[in-house]
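Session log. Operator J.P. requested a structure for one protein chain; no other inputs attached. Running the standard single-chain path with token output.
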Amino acid sequence: MRKSFFLTILLATAVVVGGGVGEAASVFAAQTNMAARDYQNHVHKEDIEYAVKSQLMWLFPDGNFRPNQTITQADLVVGLVQVKGLKEGEAIKDFPVGHWAKSYYERAVKDGILKDVAVEPNKVLTREEAAYLLINAWESVRLTRTKKDSEDHKNRSQIVYAVATQMAVVKPGEFPNGEKTNLYDSKSLMTRGEAAYSFHQLHIDLTGINESEKLYSQFRSGLKLTNKTLSGDIPSSDKYFLEIKLFLKGSKVKDIKQIGMFTVDVTEAERMDVRVVYKGKGVCQEICVTL
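Structure written below.
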């Protein structure tokens, strides 16, 4: 069972310059050997390289990424479809004839990415408008918001997202009447560099969830209960570890930490919780399951 929390996305730091739209019918042609020209010293250089290598975004024919160029709804939708690896779509009505992103929009519609969002592929997005699409995309992954959350957001003129993975900082009224006050203003336009950051974080998150679930499934399928004795095999991983707690009567807790085969008496056990935790970073990827 996936842990439910409100997903937050950083939409930060790049300076906004002129608008732009997706310019190629086949945007994900092989580009890995093209020389990077305009993002070598950019704050989101690592994110841009990841996004291009993973075919979440693309370089332009001149080999540039244009990190400070604004992003259209179509650009963001295409990236989210790529991040989630969506393959199936459904027909979309009143879509611009011949638009390069049609097949991506069909997949986005089926997935719910465009829920309660007007289809305007050529519209240049503010950070707040982009945030709605990002949150929609993660609804099916992280159960990111409740109906009440959605209604609350509709009633706020500004939403400011902070650097975090399990909480959102909402500051209603800090930027009154949509007035642009600084680079973090949610009413400012989103850039390609910022989108690369968001796609990078979301792709890592989804990859971590999928890998964690495989590890957990491997662990759970090997569990055996015989005469109040639980046995199993805790798999090893270079990227993750299993954190296992056995809750006993009398508010006692027993940790099971060893890798490999284990046997434990569960006569006094009430439940066992398992977390798959990502190693090596301050914030973990995790799923929580009660057996």
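Operator note: The chain has two domains: 45-209, 222-290.
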